[in-house]
Amino acid sequence: MTKSGGFSIKKRHRKLGALIGLAALAVPFAANLGTLGDAIHAVTGPQNVYESKLLNVKLETSQDKAKTTWDLEFDRSDMSVSEQTVKFKLDLEKAGLTDAEIAVKDGDKLGEPLDMREGIVDAVLKTQSPHLILTAISSNEDKHDITLPVTELGLYNEENGENLLPADNRSVDLTMAFEQVAEIAKESSSETVTEAVAKEEKKAEVKSEEKTAEVKEEKQAEKAPRVVPSNNGFVPYGNADPAKWTGSQIGGTEVTSIVMKSRQFTTPQTNSEATDPNNFQIWSNRQYTRQVQTSTTGTVTHDPNAAIEIRQKLGLDSGTIDGYKEGSAAAHIQNVRTHYHAQYEQTDPQPNRSSYLIEFQNASQVTGSAFTVVYDNVGVYVDANGDEHQIGATLHLSNIVAVDGMAQDNRGVWDGTHHFIDVPNNLYSGLIYQGIRSLDVTLQFFTVEGGQFANIINVQNDSADTTKASITFDSLNNFGTTTNHGTVNQWDATAYGINSAQFAESAAKVVGNTLDWNSARTAKAGTAMVQDNSLANEMKGEWYSTAHGHYTTDPQYPVSSMAMYDNDPYDRWVDVAESNTFERGAINCPITGTTNTFRLFSGTGNTWQTLTSAQINPVALPEPYKTVTDKTDYGSALAELDAYTSGSAKQAGDYDGESVSQAGTFTKNNTSYFVHNYWVFQPTYTVGDESIAKSNKIVMTDLLPEGMTLRDYDLSDTPVTIDSQQDVSVIVPTGTGTTTPLIRQTNSAANDYSVRVEKDADEPTRQRVTVTFTDAGIGKTVFNGDDIGFSLRVKVDVMSAINAKSEVVWENQAEVITGVSDEKTNKVTTHLDPLDANIALKIHKVDGDGRSLSGADFTLTRQTEYTNWNGTTFDTPTKSELEITPASKTADTWTFDNSVSEGADGTPGEPKLKPGTYKLSETQTPDGWTGIADIVFTLNYVRANPSLTPEDDHYDDLKMVITLPSGTTWNTFDIDTGVQVDVPNGEKEAKVKLIKKDADGNELSGAQFQYRMIVNDQPEATWHDLDANGAIFTMKSGEQLDYDRPSKKEVMYEVKETQSPDGYALDGSIYFKVVPKSDYGLYSNLTAPLTDVALLATNAEGTEAYGWASMDEVDGIFIGTFEVQNNPKSIFPRVGGTGIQAYIGAGLIVMLIAGGAAWYIKRRQNQ
């Protein structure tokens, strides 16, 4: 129907119109909302809005565009109740407010929004003056006053208690002067609303960033370079002491620990490796201090008029500056002035090895002097997230007391001429002081941002029994003597039993003006430190070592090893940071607050004292790691770990997550194994950073996965303590970047570690390997942050792939136990895939043409087994006889698969089809067929996908390969489940013989016959003559009949008489088949003959079976005989001829006609 009048808008035009309309509506809407850049921020208050005896409420309001904020402060007067509840109802609808949320504000943190269904608010007040923050959107964007009614106001001690507020004073109106929301400015008429909004937001972001930058610059400008200005490191006299710097603090949960790093030096110059003096400053309180730089090892001048000289020694050679240099006092001080102490931490490059040498003209100048050294980099503080941040420090030296007339001055260590302090630019290295009896050192730590001190660190412990930071004073030698060890002028480094603090190096925390000896802690595992309570006044309780501290390498007192005094009954200790007993000569003092002062005491007037934040007892080792790989050397294996931990590699070792079939093989007891390596890497901490004590116990234990053992030790070989360093070896760090293997010898007391291999107590099918360090091994291990490496050489059976019905996965995780920690490694996995479906061998019985044949039987016997995988296939045969039972069989097929055989006692045996050589024997041949001789063939497996790499899921896919003896022409086929071998049987020779007879059974001669074969209904074109011997006709030599194989190859034969005896008619064709006994069952309507092969008479089409004719075996040839009868010549064809049916029919017709005629005549006569 046609509709006239009006018009219709197309669909796409309707959509376009709608968009235009929406845009038109959006313009005024956006203009009312305003933009971020033009937002109005109106703030009013605070003002009292409610007053009562128990509760006062103040209100402060603010506006950001259409968003309003109502800050309600609830001031409670009754604080005898810890918590009270306030309830009220807001009429948001009347106020024109939507999207409201309210939450309790705790400090600067806003809690989760409270439930305010129907405008009812219920909040718990836990402090005296908590705040509730209400935010809501005004539905009216024009300038107006907002009135927010508050009703049903109540204050409660209990949730369902009495309202404590007066009944007549439980409502209030909150008001706000709401300003009109600014419009969005558009730069052009073509600019869309969205573009305008985006542009304004971008402007707001830029303004915000600029403001942030301005504030940051203002704050940075408040900071002086480093702490105070300096003249190339020397702070001018009269300037403020850097140790008096005051600024903002950082502490509490923001600082969990302070770590002074042993290898941390002040930051060198930007464009060179030389020390930057502005990062390593010194201040002095003495006006007449000479400041001079020294950068040469030559003779340096000394100003005899200078009361104090501060020598800035930059990038000098290392040399020993403590003790006393042979020669003269002048030679000694020249050596001090021109060398960086050899026992300080050394840095490479040399230009950043520097120190300040403070020389006093005489003992009187020592008194009253004070100095502050500034370091921009001494270590890190650790925050609550475990992240490290650089810190700087100030070291303030004061209350310095010179040696004056002490008895030990005459020992030759110090001749009393010089008084000096040497301070390096590595705070951990501490200081050397000579000619000084004692001095106070005050430490402060600072956060560093952009090379500037930002905040002073306030160490605030969480509780009385926790310590976030401490200072350890180690190497506290005691130069006192005993009756049997030296005299006052000679000491013995092996001395023990010292019972006095007179000549001991010591340290104490200074609290106020008092020495606090009792807050110090000693090592838990054993210590030589005791307190001398015989002293008077503030020295009572001074700590001293009862042993000298064996540090010398003098041949008279050699240090034999770092484990020299591990079990010493006198608590002697080796005075080397990497020794096992170093912590015996140390004390540890906790630090707290921003400033901590300690007093150092010299035992001889010549002392080098380190300063470290390290703990005095061993601490937990870092988390260990594990890799699985083919790497046998420490460096290559560690490189794989580094790639994994850095994230550049996803694998923990080259084999992690991959197939072990890529590994090399090893044969033991005629069994082949894949051999690879586990590495366990245990990082050490740096002695001097985390702790001054090394772990006093290191045990690595690895519970190997089931089916895996050490290469040379089977599960049945355990338990045993092994001596071989081939299966288990340990490599330890001995210095920066250097390692050494630990020693394991047969029953040697000098062994560095022991290895125990045993069945696990809980899982006896798994092997546990335990490696335990001896004291000697720990002594050889340098704790410098490098890794201890444990290598385990392990093996898995190559045949695991064939044994398994599913993928074999070996997951492994080791464990490292110390005296204070028990940490597990990451997990690593390797796997070996099964043979999937490609594991069956099918023996298929066929005839010579490959047609299935029944009636046979076989045995399959494994003669040898290939025990080695060479990366491509299996080899190395060993004798392994086993008759294989077929998994299934049918009339013509025997299937042997790789399932596990069952032992005589019913327990699982071994896989059936291991690679190797097999003998196939035909134990029963189908009747009528020729048998086969035993045949020996090879069954093996090769990679199905040789081009794949080990990480591919199908890398382990194997396929079966059958290799038949040379000259064997059997057919083999790759099938989905493996390999099929067609085992053919040949047909026995079969012939037919005809005997010509007459009707009376007498033999007739003179006939001739021919035969031909008909295959699948197709007659051959060639006829073959039968040889005549009188009345007997046979096939020629070399000719034989083929068997008929219904539905496979249908064969029948036609025999015709080409010449009949004289007086006899030609006989018709004869049709027959040659049938082996295996196929007799196909003709169940006939009684089967007893012979193995028979002739079956049939019609010309081969569809009818008329009867059997037996075939007799004569000299291995089956011969079947037909008797052919001839009749005398007649006008009738020979019985059985094809024309007789017509003549019979005609005769019957004649007889019927004659009979009918006779009956008709007779009837007429009767009538």
TrEMBL record:
UniProt cross-references to InterPro entries, sorted A to Z: Ig-like_fold, SpaA_PFL_dom_1
Ranges of biased composition (kind: Basic and acidic residues): 205-225
Gene3D superfamilies, alphabetized: Immunoglobulins (2.60.40.10)
Domain of life: Bacteria
Transmembrane portions of the chain: 1140-1161
Entry keyword set: Membrane, Signal, Transmembrane, Transmembrane helix
Annotated ranges, domain SpaA-like prealbumin fold: 841-931, 991-1074
Region of interest: Disordered: 205-233, 893-924
Signal peptide coordinates: 1-33
Annotated protein name in UniProt: SpaA-like prealbumin fold domain-containing protein
Organism of derivation: Weissella confusa (Lactobacillus confusus)
